[in-house]
């Protein structure tokens, strides 16, 4: 489902109206008890050909038809439930296509000014309905463009397109429109207003996205693109993602190993790529801002054949910019083409590719002279850098065998080449001359990730099942070379940032790695009247081998881990839009290293209990979520008191929290995102810090973003983000103060002959709040005020 749908409670059925105007028009007619609908095609759709639709459940076929044709389609879930459609070969008019889909069902499609309505067949063109009360619930596709901030569906919790209201887990969605309105480039910036999410834990560090969910880091272990893991190795050999190339970002909170294998216990961040869609708008945009920010980007697509079976989309970006920290570049080049092909009514193939180059600084740390933190940058403009080149290619394939079975397979292959060089401070002489040495990290990564699943839809008595049975596999090959060397000294008061620096020649590590991950999983989504039940089980295997090219075969290592994880959940849907739920889930994450006896460390394990309440007021595009959780991570490494210098896995960390979130398209003019998070995190078992708060985890987070569009094309927006204080060390003796950042924007939409043109001005950290975050002796600055002016044209 690509456009907004609305559920209407009638006697005895519930209607799904895919636009609010449609719901209002139908409601006004139904109040009188009689509806007269003219059976005529709306003029905008008269030239659109019916799309190819595979055979399968009628509800799914109708949703696919509406998505493929780009039309508004309304129907009653109670009326179509249990029915199947023979599918559609495509071509012909929309009316002919709908008639073919509904053949032998006893249903017909009636055309209205706001779209099509599927109703039981009646004699003649007029029919009677009992008086009804309108109660609408918004639902959207998890993969198509979402108009506004509200997203009704998500895919991360089930690997299927399901309403968030009916999911017994906490899920936050950041739509492409949110990303565009705030003019963010990084995924980290995009999720900053989501409940339970903390960003910027190391200040401004553009080398990777620093995202914590429920107090646990997701940077390395929970980075996903289109449901497939983006693997990493070493220190910085990891894939990067431009926010502009995403249709949405889904944050699934709590352990998710049952579907995704080894993962952070806090949750996962799933980036969903822009892909071909008839609902996607074309766009070109130019940007300019402070710190020499210059950016051009485009998003273009459409159909390549008359019937619309082959669609394409291409996203591109060029950015030449700097950050507020001296000599730190923010350059990027991106090209991401995609192609979707409806091969036949039962088979669809989508190809996704991406090529990206980026350059930024190697290390954003501040220099500490032993007594105080300074603003001095210790690097060299020509030597210090992070250069990364990456490309990926993959596909998403789906084939429907029958009304019951369909096969889905996603695959992606990619390569990342990274050069990371920086100058590290050593000693300070004469109170002003800083001695430095050079560090070079050269990392190459090659990966293949696949996920194959069989989706089975069937009934057992009153239970309606959607059973997902899957096998995923990932292969990662890495080459890591770390080196050091001499570097030139620098004067603190008259620094020269353009000195010759040789590439480091003393090898500290030269290692090749090969990793295989595989898992089999089973998850059943069950509907029983108004109950939504879920249960899943998974078994994982991980095999890792490292070849030490520096020290010989004696230093080569092999390690294997396996784990079983699971998830259960229950949710109840009330007529008034309330949906209480409860869930339990587990996770695992392999740990590197070994104890004093040389025994490899076991994976850490996560376990979460969650209670929540969701509320989607009928007829609105509003979702309110409240959740209580108790999350425990075990097998955490802590100091071995009997063998100093080694660790044991007797540690434990607990996060107990409350999350509140509101996302709403209050009207055509007003959109809102608000959240509050309380995380009572504690080290419950440790050799040294038991009873202390874990470092770098704030107790309180809060945010509010509001966008309001005034008449005559003018719009204003603003937001506040509060991050509470944190401890910078395990002993809780170093404390980082909390801070509040303000974001703001103003935009003007031209009309008349310039329809689709928008001029905007956005500012992050509007008040230029300067804040510092320190941990384990290293200190990082937050990003200063960033101002971007943009001119875009959409059509």
From TrEMBL:
A Gene Ontology term for the protein's cellular component:
cell outer membrane
Query: A Pfam family in this protein?
Result: Plug
Family label: Belongs to the TonB-dependent receptor family.
Record-given protein name: Metal-pseudopaline receptor CntO
Question: Could you tell me the membrane topology recorded for this protein?
Answer: Multi-pass membrane protein
What residues does the Secretin/TonB short N-terminal domain cover?
71-121
- Where in the cell is the protein located? Cell outer membrane
Main site of residence? Answer: membrane
Question: What one GO molecular function would you report for this record?
Answer: signaling receptor activity
Q: Which organism is it from?
A: Halopseudomonas pelagia
| Superkingdom, natural source | Bacteria
Fetch the InterPro entries from UniProt: Beta-barrel_TonB (IPR000531), Beta-barrel_TonB_sf (IPR036942), Plug_dom (IPR012910), Plug_dom_sf (IPR037066), Secretin/TonB_short_N (IPR011662), TonB-dep_rcpt-like (IPR039426), TonB_sidphr_rcpt (IPR010105)
Name the GO terms of the biological process aspect: nickel cation transport; siderophore transport; zinc ion transport
User: Which PROSITE patterns did the record assign?
Assistant: TONB_DEPENDENT_REC_3
Function statement: Transports the metallophore pseudopaline, which is involved in the acquisition of nickel and zinc, and thus enables bacterial growth inside the host, where metal access is limited. Is probably involved in the import of pseudopaline-metal complexes.
Q: Which UniProt keywords apply?
A: Cell outer membrane, Ion transport, Iron, Iron transport, Membrane, Nickel, Nickel transport, Receptor, Signal, TonB box, Transmembrane, Transmembrane beta strand, Transport, Zinc, Zinc transport
Entry-linked Gene3D superfamilies: 3.55.50.30, TonB-dependent receptor, beta-barrel domain, TonB-dependent receptor, plug domain
């Amino acid at each position: 489902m690509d456009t907004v749908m609305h559920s209407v409670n009638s006697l005895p059925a519930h209607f799904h109206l895919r636009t609010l105007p449609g719901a209002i028009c139908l409601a006004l007619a139904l109040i009188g008890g009689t509806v007269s609908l003219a059976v005529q095609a709306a003029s905008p759709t008269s030239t659109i050909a019916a799309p190819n639709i595979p055979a399968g459940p009628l509800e799914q076929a109708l949703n696919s038809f509406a998505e493929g044709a780009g039309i508004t389609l309304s129907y009653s879930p109670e009326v179509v439930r249990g029915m199947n459609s023979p599918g559609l070969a495509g071509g012909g008019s929309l009316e002919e296509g709908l008639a073919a889909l509904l053949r032998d069902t006893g249903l017909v499609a009636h055309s209205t000014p706001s779209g099509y309505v599927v109703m039981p067949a009646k004699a003649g063109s007029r029919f009677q309905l009992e008086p009804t009360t309108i109660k609408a619930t918004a639902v959207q596709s998890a993969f198509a463009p979402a108009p506004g901030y509200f997203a009704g569906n998500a895919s991360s919790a089930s690997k299927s397109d399901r309403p968030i209201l009916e999911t017994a887990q906490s899920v936050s969605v950041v739509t492409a429109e949110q990303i565009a309105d705030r003019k963010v480039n990084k995924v980290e910036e995009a999720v900053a207003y989501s409940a339970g999410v903390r960003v910027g834990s190391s200040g401004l560090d553009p080398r990777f996205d620093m995202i914590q969910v429920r107090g646990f880091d997701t940077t390395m272990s929970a980075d996903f693109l289109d449901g497939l893991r983006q693997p990493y190795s070493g220190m910085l050999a990891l894939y990067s993602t431009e926010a502009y190339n995403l249709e949405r970002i889904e944050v699934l909170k709590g352990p998710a190993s049952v579907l995704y294998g080894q993962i952070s216990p806090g949750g996962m961040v799933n980036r969903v790529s822009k892909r071909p869609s008839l609902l996607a708008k074309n766009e070109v945009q130019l940007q300019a801002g402070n710190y020499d920010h210059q950016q051009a980007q485009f998003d273009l697509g459409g159909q390549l054949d008359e019937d619309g079976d082959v669609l394409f989309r291409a996203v591109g970006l060029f950015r030449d910019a700097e950050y507020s920290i001296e000599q730190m570049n923010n350059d990027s080049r991106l090209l991401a083409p995609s192609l979707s092909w409806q091969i036949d009514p039962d088979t669809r193939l989508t190809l996704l590719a991406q090529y990206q180059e980026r350059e930024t600084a190697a290390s954003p740390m501040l220099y500490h002279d032993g007594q105080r933190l300074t603003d001095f940058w210790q690097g060299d403009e020509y030597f210090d850098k992070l250069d990364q080149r990456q490309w990926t290619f993959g596909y998403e394939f789906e084939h429907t065998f029958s009304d019951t079975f369909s096969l889905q397979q996603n695959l992606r292959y990619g390569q990342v080449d990274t050069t990371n060089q920086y100058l590290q401070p050593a000693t300070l002489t004469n109170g002003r001359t800083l001695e430095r040495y050079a560090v070079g990290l050269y990392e190459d990564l090659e990966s293949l990730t696949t996920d194959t699943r069989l989706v089975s839809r069937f009934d057992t008595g009153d239970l309606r099942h959607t059973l997902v049975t899957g096998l995923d596999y990932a292969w990662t090959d890495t080459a890591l070379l770390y080196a050091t060397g001499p570097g030139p000294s620098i004067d603190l008061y008259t620094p020269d940032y353009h000195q010759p620096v040789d590439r480091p020649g003393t090898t500290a590590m030269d290692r090749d790695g090969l990793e295989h991950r595989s898992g089999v999983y089973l998850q059943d989504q069950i509907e029983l009247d108004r109950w939504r039940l879920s249960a899943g089980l998974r078994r994982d295997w991980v095999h890792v081998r490292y070849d030490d090219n520096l020290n010989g075969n004696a230093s080569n290592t092999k390690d294997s881990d396996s784990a079983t994880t699971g998830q259960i959940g229950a949710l109840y849907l009330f007529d008034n839009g309330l949906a209480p739920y409860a869930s339990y889930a587990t996770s695992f994450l392999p740990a590197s290293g070994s104890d004093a006896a040389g025994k490899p460390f076991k994976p850490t394990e996560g376990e979460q209990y969650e209670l929540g309440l969701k509320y989607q007021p009928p007829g609105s595009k509003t979702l309110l979520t409240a959740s209580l959780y108790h999350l425990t991570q075990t097998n955490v490494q802590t100091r071995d008191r009997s063998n100093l210098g080694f660790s044991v896995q007797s540690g434990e960390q607990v996060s107990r929290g409350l999350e509140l979130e509101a996302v709403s398209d209050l009207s055509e003019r007003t959109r809102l995102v608000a959240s509050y998070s309380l995380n009572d995190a504690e080290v419950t078992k440790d050799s040294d810090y038991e009873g202390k708060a874990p470092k770098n985890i704030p107790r309180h987070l809060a945010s509010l973003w509001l966008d309001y569009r005034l008449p005559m094309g003018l719009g204003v927006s603003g937001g506040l983000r509060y991050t509470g204080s944190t401890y910078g060390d395990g002993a809780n003796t170093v404390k980082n103060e909390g801070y509040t950042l303000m974001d703001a924007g103003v935009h003007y939409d031209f009309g008349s002959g310039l329809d689709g043109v928008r001029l905007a001005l956005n500012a992050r950290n509007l008040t230029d709040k300067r804040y510092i975050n320190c941990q384990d002796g290293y200190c990082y600055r937050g990003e200063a005020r960033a101002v971007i002016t943009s001119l875009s044209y959409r059509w």
